[in-house]
Amino acid sequence: MKTGSNENAAKGITLFVAATASFATTFMGSSINIALPSIDSEFTLDAVMLSWIATSYLLAAAIFLVPFGRIADIHGRKKIFAYGIILYTISSLLSAFSPSAIILICLRVLQGLGGAMIYCTGIAMVASAFPLGERGKALGITVATTYLGLSLGPVLGGLLTEHFGWRSIFLVVVPLGVAVIIAVLWKMKKDWADARGEKFDLAGSIILSLALITVMYGLSLLPSTSGFWLVSIGVVGIAIFTWWEMKAQSPVLNVGLFSSNAVFGFSNLTALLHYSATFAVIFFLSLYLQYIKGLSPGYAGLVLVSQPIVMAVFSPAAGRLSDRVDPRWVASAGMALTTIGIGLLHLLNEKTPLNFIIPVLALVGLGAALFSSPNTNAVMSSIDEKLYGVASATLATLRQIGHMTSMGIAMMLLSMYVGKAQIIPENYCLFLESMKMAFLIFTVLCFIGILTSLARGKTLR
């Protein structure tokens, strides 16, 4: 009886630290989006430079996710998670006192490094702590707290920005970080290192990191010639990384899983398409509501909350459903709803009423809820336990690459339509054109995602 009680307590602590960290990191991300116009007002940034406030974090996280996922499998997921939450908390505190945009961007890079250590271990710890029959529910709760962070970010972030300034949003996550640090160091007894003793592939990690840096930075420079060259070089680097990993004895990423395991491969590909199509939606709408519609940060946040609050409400149910129904069908239905919702956002103009925008955002949120938990459950249920860290890191890396791709598309379109200029009334029509084109591209990506989700086949049970 006591053993069962201890096991339940251990599972509860694991779920608490993973869920709270997920909440804190996503809260920060969505708060930053709503605060961008205020940051622009203080530092006077052009449209592309302004987007780097969000993009720098994504780039750093994408670079380090897979290497830290492998390190966590070898040396312990709890240990890497603890280092990550400590770094994230300290960099958040320092960001609140940034004297310039450059320093803020540098600190956002440090946040991204800490975030990578959190992302690659959080889901893996939950998957390790909970047995198969309970895993979908636990993952659903973790995803729900992620979306709760996304939900409260626009509202609280908008109110904080409006009444206390944008710097306050960095301060509010510090107590959460401290609470997680205490729980990890003093309450979590168990660690997971299912690949202990295996070697770390340093060369492969360096190749992947350089390739991702080149691709992501190149995306930010498009449509310039240098941007195309950098993206091309980065793609070649990813091909070299794939070749290297296929012959490595202890690969940092088991690329063979993508070809030998259809569920794993197509689930990750669909996740990449989903995140590539959805992340920049809030970025664009935050600017649209404040610049075009003239809303305050707090009011804009209340409008934007309609998407993530629906995600938070329905994610646990979607996770439980995927324990009973093949995740393929639930996730594919979610992709279909997301496709319809983003397609409707393509219709936005300067006169679009809020009573159209809010229900459409709720529809996108419902689609995301039905997709994310079941898709994560499909990924983690398709591989052996010793690969949980790498699988979690792979899924998180593709999420970050998807976010980065989404922002890359946004930066490219802003560069094409607005150029190196601030978003001022004279440029509002150009901004609207860039936003509408982005939503059209995102709709196409979501439609392709429906096909790849269906193609994954039946998840093994």
Structure write-up:
The chain is about 80% helix and about 0% strand. It is mainly alpha-helical and about 450 residues long. The protein has 2 domains: about 400 residues, MFS general substrate transporter like domains (Growth Hormone, Chain: A); about 45 residues. α1 packs antiparallel against α7, α2 packs antiparallel against α3 and α5 runs antiparallel to α12.
Task: Record keyword descriptors for this entry.
461 residues, mainly alpha, Growth Hormone, Chain: A, 2 domains, 17 helices, 82% helix
Give the averaged pLDDT, no decimals.
84
CATH class type of the largest domain:
Mainly Alpha
* CATH topology value of the largest domain: Growth Hormone, Chain: A
Provide the domain count. 2
- Cα(first) to Cα(last) distance is 29 Å
Shape: globular
Total of DSSP H or I helical runs spanning 4+ residues: 17
Number of strands: 0
Going by CATH, what is the homologous superfamily of the largest domain?
MFS general substrate transporter like domains
Question: What would you say the CATH architecture of the largest domain is?
Answer: Up-down Bundle
> What is the radius of gyration computed over CA atoms, rounded to a whole number of angstroms?
21 Å
Q: Helix share of residues?
A: over 70%
Largest sheet: none
Note the run of SSEs as H and E.
HHHHHHHHHHHHHHHHH
